[in-house]
Amino acid sequence: MPTPKQMDKLAALVGRNVPQRPELPPEADLPAEYWQALLDDPRAEALSVASGAALRLSQIPQHLLRVGCRRCARVVEIQKVDAMRLYGQEALWKDVGRRLLDNTCTQRTGRHEEDGCWPAFE
Q1: What is the value of pTM for the model shown?
Q2: Which residue in 50, 71, 89, 111 has the fewest CB atoms around it within 10 Å?
Q3: 3-state SS assignment for residue 49
Q4: Residue 21 resides in a domain
Q5: pLDDT tens digits, one per residue of 64-93
Q6: 108 located within any domain
């Protein structure tokens, strides 16, 4: 444990060795290195592909598709062949799932901003 004198000495040194970088103004664009680092991050692609919401129906390996609502906890299931017959092979799963939930939504308030379900693709 440092003595009070050593703690005062350390406290005086804090902030002196930090290199001063100019701050970006709020309206300035972020540097290209920042955007490239986001694009190169393997976690970004894993999040978008992990849920399968960005896949087309023909690309999904499961034969049973399930989408749930985060708001009312309702779950809608459809077989892949039925979804492909109704919406086409090239339809995006997130669009199909949103339609399935919206067609049977029970959370109707009359206000567009509040209506509808909040899909969670499984």
Answers
A1: 0.53
A2: 111
A3: helix
A4: no
A5: 999 888 877 888 899 999 999 999 999 998
A6: yes
Helices (H), 14-57: 32-40, 42-50
Strand arrangement, sheet containing 119-121:
75-79, 64-69, 119-121
* Beta carbons of 114 and 122 less than 8 angstroms apart: no
Confidence of residue 113 (pLDDT cuts 50, 70, 90): low
Q: How far apart are CA 7 and CA 5, in angstroms?
A: 5
Amino acid letter at 52? G
Pairing of strands 75-79, 119-121: unpaired
Cα separation, 17 vs 47, whole angstroms: 38
Total domains in the chain come to 1
Q: Tokens at residue 13, please?
A: 């040194």
Tell which residue, 66, 78, 103, has the closest CA to residue 115: 103
